[in-house]
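Hey everyone, long-time lurker, first post.

I ran two proteins through the pipeline my lab uses and got sequence/structure pairs for each. Pasting them in order. The first:
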Amino acid sequence: MKPISFMVGLVILVFAVAILAQAGEKPKGQTAEQELLKLEQEWTNADLKSDWATMGRILADDYVLTDRDGEVSTKAQCEAFMRSGEDKILTLVTDDMKVRVYGDAAVVTLRSTIKETYRGEEISDVCRITNTWIKKAGRWQCVATQGTRIAQK
């Protein structure tokens, strides 16, 4: 009787370990999605604080921005603009965020509602943003942003 109960106990233990191991695993896409959502939030916070140290870490060296007016800027130009103080973000809300991961590449789309002062003039806008991310050397960096103004109805 003891050998049977030992075998039953061993089988139950093996199944329990297998179930716990599976429960602890997360799909690869979910982990990347969580990382990207966190980075997008860090980016929003950095914009609000004019924190170039965080922005510089998030943006790849070859980053390019196509803004809501169709102007194209490099990472260096974005840094110079942020440091110039010409623009001050008063409020910035991002929502309707969707993350699509394709291995070591990802696309994040979102809606951005911003109120800012540019050269002393207050501006409010609602835009659709598309950020393209690449995983380089084990970390995600944004390589491109496209912003499109949402027409006010």
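...and the second, right after it:
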Amino acid sequence: MQTVTEKILRLSPPGGLFDETAVRNLLDDRSEAARKVLVHRAVSAGEIIRLRPGLFLLAPEFRKTHPHPFVVAAMLHSPSHVSLESALSHHGLIPEAVFQVGSVTSARSRTFHTPVGVFSFVRVPSSGPRAGVQALKVDGQSWAFVATPLRAVADLIYTRRDVSWAKDGLAFLTESMRIERDDLEEISFESLDEVCESLRSRRTTDYLRGLYRELKT
């Protein structure tokens, strides 16, 4: 077993996920070049999986638990929060399983194809990136930032530039997204003003306020 693998095993990070900071701390007696060589050897031996530069995962046979996809997403690209269809599925609003984790970021859009799945990040400019976002415990040890249903809808509308309340109304959610009206009526609009004020899209805020009028008044 490679040196890096042995030390990470003793550290026992949740889900087997660790980054270059962990490697630096565990091998603080080695030079940066030497640490890179040791990591490369562990990757070549198949004991460690490189998800992106600086982010790693122990191979399945060396970890006790599997990493939650939402936690992987958070570590792949920051700042971000899980949203769009992934959040709607997590909240039980859309019936089909989502096979790609979709997140929203205030940084640039990116997509990562990794051995543990595909992770996409769509840029949604916001003056309050955490408006309508919750820190949720997604497994026994890990937390992730996940959009509330309202924020997930807001992010979805922002990214679907051809959708508007005036043109599509509730049908976009009930027909195109197949969300039941009864489930939409259960959505909390408590953060409506905060979400609307944080986004930089009149089309999106008009949709959210139209949705509120349709469901709550």
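Reply from user beta_strand_b:
Welcome! Quick read of the second one: The longest helix spans residues 202-216. The chain has a mean pLDDT of 95.
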